[in-house]
Automatic annotation (TrEMBL):
<protein>
    <recommendedName>
        <fullName>Spore coat protein U domain-containing protein</fullName>
    </recommendedName>
</protein>
<keyword id="KW-0732">Signal</keyword>
<feature type="signal peptide">
    <location>
        <begin position="1"/>
        <end position="25"/>
    </location>
</feature>
Amino acid sequence: MTKLGIGSITLSTLFAASFAASVSADPISLLITGNVDPVCEVTGLSTVSYNAGPLDQGLSLSSSALPIDVKCNYKSGAVITLATLNGGLTSAEATGEVVDYKATLTAGALGAFALNTSSLGAGGTAAGVFSGATLAAGVPSTLQIEILDDATFAGDYTDTLTVTIAQN
């Protein structure tokens, strides 16, 4: 009788171990997602018109730095472009007269670049390439305008300077 009892204990132990191994749930996968919206922008320029003052004084006039903010959160960085519409300050009253200026954009500690109209024609551009976590978070920056020469003839002189930022 002893043999029969041991055999039945062994058989039931094997059956229990086999049953326990087969009772498992199918694995479940969970897809976790997130998103960061792309942003490339220039903001904070509260002045959309800058008056350089009298252009016939023979002075090199320089503006106080105009505050702007640049931000671009692409890993590849950004290209910031300054573009001159007229290639300098021009006047309808003094056709052919051009007063050159230099516009310098300083993107905080990331660096600076300048557009100098004395070496550009109408539609000329200058660009700086910047990248990094600082740019992705937003960089307090400045735009400085420096008048390089004076006007000889009477008139109102204008140019449109455009600042753009785009993914590099």
